[in-house]
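Lab manual, section 2.4: Encoding a predicted structure.

Procedure: take the sequence of the chain (370 residues), apply the prediction step described in section 2.3, and record the output as structure tokens. A sample record is shown.
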Amino acid sequence: MKKLLIILHDLGAGGAEKMMTRLAGALVDAGNDVTLLMLTGGGINAAGLDPRVKQVELHSGRSANAVPALAQFLRHNRFDAQLAALTHVNVVAIAAAALSGTLSRLHVSERNAFSHDKYVNPSLRVRLAYWVAPLLYRLIPNPVICVSRGVAEDLVQTTLARRRDVTIADNPVLDNDFRERLLPAPEHHWLRVKTMPVIVAVGRLAHQKGFDTLIDAFARLPQRTVRLIIFGDGTLRAQLLDQARALGVADRVDLPGYTPDPMAQVAAADCFVLSSRFEGSPNALVEALATGTPVIATRCPHGPQDILDDGAVAPLVAVDDPAALAQAISDQLSATSDTRRQTRIDAAARFMNARAVKTYLNALLGSAPP
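Recorded output:
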């Protein structure tokens, strides 16, 4: 049994937090003693954390302020491997590991396209972290764990990081028995009692996710008896609703907020759309594939092409092209038969917990269970 530590800011509603929660449970299933440490604490994904995972909260007001407390924790609690996630947390973890003499056991991970993600958060401290992180990635002894080949290539091509400074591990998105799992009934009334086709999207209401392009595409559909539901929270909610009103589709668009079980919603839909401008390895796309529901995604950097086998599994359209997206959605809604359902489900199987945890154990320990 290995002692493993995962370091996060908190367990908020982001994709990285959800995946680290799932990874912690999968590592326990693989026979490891796992601790999840939060620099601050709390968050909606805490409810999904396996009870066998130990939790530690440092209650730091800011991530950067957690360095002394984290260094002390690392000195007094020796782990076989330590994994940090998200760029600003990586920088904090590197500093704390250096101070505690545990740098040889620290691994950091990048969850998104670095060249795009560094512009998202305007905070000066976060911007500074993105500036210094690539230099640190050259100096630390272990390669950066990236969630997709595209994320790894982006880090190498746009920063000081070298190819030997990166490695790849898949996200643990799906339960091992996902094929047999009976999904609960959908929460949304448009999906519980369907009177017309429904398109579903899932993600933070942020510029990255391209929901403004999706609403524009939705308004262009020749099919006028179709509804769109976008599940997720974020700062752009009012702006997106204003856009829907301006385009005359507000009565057929709903933004109900966060859903704890997106697969149940997508499984009841007629089509899932990923309209992002950039991604790392979009978990919502994998979950949608696992339900068998038809999906459409943008050819954004860097995850969808890999997951969808460059369009062999499901259609890919250009980023920020509402006309092309509308055409792809219309084609899907007009299709008289669906011959790719099993192909979509098979493509999702790569991201099962048992498979993904092996890639992480190889990265963290240089070995994985048989």
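Check your result against the sample. Residues 350 and 356 are 8 Å apart (CA to CA).
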